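Model: Ready when you are.
Researcher: Fold this.
Model:
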Amino acid sequence: MRKLIVTTFLTLDGVMQAPGGPGEDEDQGFRHGGWSVPCWDDEIGAFMDETMGKPFDLVLGRKTYDIFAAFWPTAPDEAGGKPLNDATKYVASRGRPDLTWRNSVLLEGDAADAVAALKQEDGPELQVHGSADLLQTLLRHNLVDRFRLMTFPVLVGSGKRLFADGTAPASLAVVDTKVNTKGVVMSTYEPAGELVTGTF
C-alpha cells in the first residue's frame, strides 16, 4: 500500500495559493503571489530535499499540473527537475487535457476513487503539491496519510486554503517540527483519529 503525502506552503492565516510568484495563480483576484519567497533559506531547501529525495509519484490537480508542466520539463537536474520529471504524474481533471509532460496519466472517473485505488497499488509514495481544489476532495475522503507543512509568518487575508470550510474535525499527531531563522515553521503531522475535546 502506498502512502499519500501532502506537502504545502501556508501563510499564517492558512492560505496556500501562489506561494512561488506573481501570476502563479490569480484565481478569485488573488494579488499576493510570491509571499513565500522572502523567507526562503537553506533550511527550507533541506526540508524540500528530504521530501523529494526518495522515490515518489505525484498526484496533481489540473491547475498545479499546468504550472509545473510549464517549468519543470526543461529545468536542469541541479535545479531539482530530475525527480519531478522521472515521477509518474497522476492528474485529476474534469476535462480531457493534453498531458504532454512525460510520464503523465489522467485519473479516470471519480478522483477520490482513483486515488484510493492508486494507494492500494505497489509503488513509491504519492506526493501532492499545490492542488488546493483536489486536496479538499482527498481530505473529505480521509485519503491523506501525512502532512508536511511549511507555515510562513505572513498574512494575506484571503485565498485558497488547505483546510477550507467543510474540513472535518480531526486530531493530528506531530511527527517532527523545526523553525528556520526567518520564522518558517516546518512541521510533519499524521492523522490521529477523531477530535478530542475537554474542559478547563
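Researcher: Now this one.
Model:
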Amino acid sequence: MHLSNYTKEFKYNWQLASPVMLGMLGHSFVSFVDNIMVGQLGTAELAAVSLGNSFMFIAMSLGIGFSTAITPLTAEADAEQNFEKGKSSFKHGLFLCTVLGVSLFLMVLIAKPIMYLMNQPIEVVKLAIPYLDLVAFSLIPLIVFQAFKQFSDGLSMTKYPMYATLLGNILNVILNYILIFGKFGCPEFGIVGAAYGTLVSRIIMVWHLWYLLRGKEKSKAFLTHIKIFILDKLMLKKIINLGTPSAMQMLFEVAIFTAAIWLSGTLGKNPQAANQIALNLSSMTFMVATGLSVAAMIRVGNQKGKQNYLELRRIAFSIFLFGIVLAFVFGILFFSFNAYLPKIYVDYNDATNLIDNVEVVKIASKLLIAAAIFQISDSIQVIVLGALRGLQDVKIPTVITFISYWLIGFPISWFFGKEEALGSFGIWLGLLAGLTTAAILLYIRFNYLTKKLILSNNL
C-alpha cells in the first residue's frame, strides 16, 4: 500500500488527538511549573513532592485506566447511532468511577505509613506526608472528571475536556504561586500549598466539563435525567470486564516508573530529585503519544462498530506512523538539549544548595539520554494499546504489559540501579528495556488480531 494512504489521515488524526494532547500536556505543564516552584524551596522539597506523587501515580493509573473502558463503548454506540447504549455506558461508567475515586482516596491514606519502611531519606518522608494527605483527596474529583472526559472522547468531542483541563491548569498555577510562596497576604504553605491548588483546580475541572457538555446538542441528552442508582448488572459487568484489565495495564506501566522513583530514593535525595526532573520532561512527550492513543481508540472503536476491518487497520497504521515521526523529533530534542533542560528546575544562584543543584543537573542530563532513546518504543506501545482498547481486546495486552515491565524491565532496573553498578542510569535502562519489549509484543498482537478479523469477515 502506498505511503500516501497513511499520511492522508495525519490531518484528521491530529484534529482528533490534539485537544487530548493539549489537555494532557496541560497536566504535565502544571507538574512542570509545580516542580520549578517547589525546586526553589530546595532539593528535599522536590524529592518530597516526587515521593508523595509516586503514591498518587499508582492510584491515578488505576482510576484513569479503568475509565478508558467508557470511550470504546461510547464510540461503538455512536457509530451504531444507539443512544440508549451510549447513555448506559456513560451512566454506569460515571457510577463506577465515583466509587473507585473514593476507594482510591482511602487506599492512599491507609498506605501512607509504608513511606517509613521504604528506605527513603527521612527528611523527605516528613515533608511528603502532609502533602499527600491533601492531594489524595483530589483523586475523587479527578476520577469523576475522567468519566466525563472518556465519554466526551467517545463521542469524538475531544475539545471540551481540553477546555476544562486548561481552565483547571491555569487556576492550579495561580493558586500554587499564591499558596506555596504566601503571596497577596496569604500564609506561606510551602509544598502543602501545591496540594491545595491541585484539589481546588480539579473540583472546578469537573464542574466546567459538566457545564460544557450540558450545553451541547450532541451530548446534553446523555447528561440529563440520569438515574444513577438504577443500574443494569450486565452493563456494570461489561465495563468492569473492560475497565479492570485496562486499569491493570496502566498500573503495570506507571508502577515501574514509580519503582524508579523509589529506587532513586535509595541512592539519596539528589538522585531522586534528578529522577523527578527527567520523569517530568519525558512525561510531556508521553502525553503527545497518549493523545494519539485516544485517537486510535476512538477511530478503531468507530470502525469496529461499522465492522469495516480493512479501513480499521489502515487508519490504525496511519496513527502508528504519525506517532513514530513525532517521537523521533522528541528524541532528537532530548539528546541535543540534555545538558540544558534540567537547569530550568534548579536555582544556580542559591549558594546554600549549589553543590546539590549541580549534582542533580549532572544526573538528570544523563537520564535524558535514556529518555531520548526510549521515545519511539514508548510512543508505539501506548498508541498500539489504544488501538487494542478500541478493539475491546484487553486481557492479552494486560499479560503483555506485566511481562514487559515486571519480568523484564524491573529486574534490569533493580540490578543495574545500585550505587555500585550504574546508579540512576541503570534504573532507566530497565525502563527502556520494558517499554521496548511492550512495543514489540503489543504490535505483534494488533497485527495478528486485525488480520484475523479481515480474514473472518471475507469468509
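Researcher: Key takeaway?
Model: The chain has a mean pLDDT of 84.
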